[in-house]
């Protein structure tokens, strides 16, 4: 090839581009068929098929016109139909890889069409090769740029739809938690969550970032017996969750890993939309008790285990006064008082059996008896006086610790 041949190739390429422009409609039809045979998602969706045809036609016209007139690829903008095609792919839930495959296959079609046709238009093999290289290189650069633009539009559309869905979901959750009347069918559709069964609300939270809380919450839901859980973020360190349970299946989190860094507070099962709110409030109150207790280690706490403590500690000053009135000097934050309170609580839990209490605590029966006597001395009256109130005060101290001891400052 002499020095003039590259220029001759470029001129010939512009002429071929002009010829192809006159036949864009037919080329677009052929390209659509080529793509549809290789991407099943196109076949049964008339709207997507129409947008694909429009995108093929628009992109072919753009790339051929730019090549013909020597316009730099950097000036290319995605055609309107190509952007709408990207939005349609996002709305239908197709992955971005599937969407970009349309462009890879379109480029493949264009390459094959050129390689099969150029020798019919150009007799000189050297000029044909030069023309093919120029057209192919320009086509690749065009597709590379347009692919980036439509991918950005796809992601933007996905974000818009996810934000819209999230806002709609949050609005329904707010209405349910506020006790407002809602259209249950619409609410279930928006939340992808059944509201007619028993509802268990739970809260998961961590002390530091770095945990996939939403994934963890879904695991909690599975342990509670729900195949799919509703999970809503409550800031960066906490999530709210709901599990919808059918029938009378028993729920348990006993199998969950105890070494997890996540705190879990679980409400009791309650029926229907009202139960959605009630169980959630119980979970929040359980979290409050856990945080008030000052327990640093993550734990799994169910509302049924702390319901009495929650009720008594709603007014923390009143709870401290109640503890002080029932325990007297036994309400001190020191090791001996704590041991005596724990022993007396074990005896009351065992309905007065010193043997059972000793077995529970892992100490000798005589030690139990000695501690009970010292506890009664500190209290200033026998354990048989106001037994229910004494039991409640000891339970509150056992759960909340220093938070309810009279000489302690509020946490």
TrEMBL record:
The lineage of its organism: Bacteria, Bacillati, Actinomycetota, Actinomycetes, Mycobacteriales. It holds the Pfam family GGDEF_2. InterPro entries: CdaR-like_regulators, CdaR_GGDEF, PucR_C-HTH_dom, PucR_C-HTH_sf, RsbRD_N_dom. Residues 342-395 form the PucR C-terminal helix-turn-helix domain. Residues 26-169 form the RsbT co-antagonist protein RsbRD N-terminal domain. This is PucR family transcriptional regulator. It comes from Mycobacterium celatum. Belongs to the CdaR family. It comes from the Bacteria. Residues 183-289 form the CdaR GGDEF-like domain.
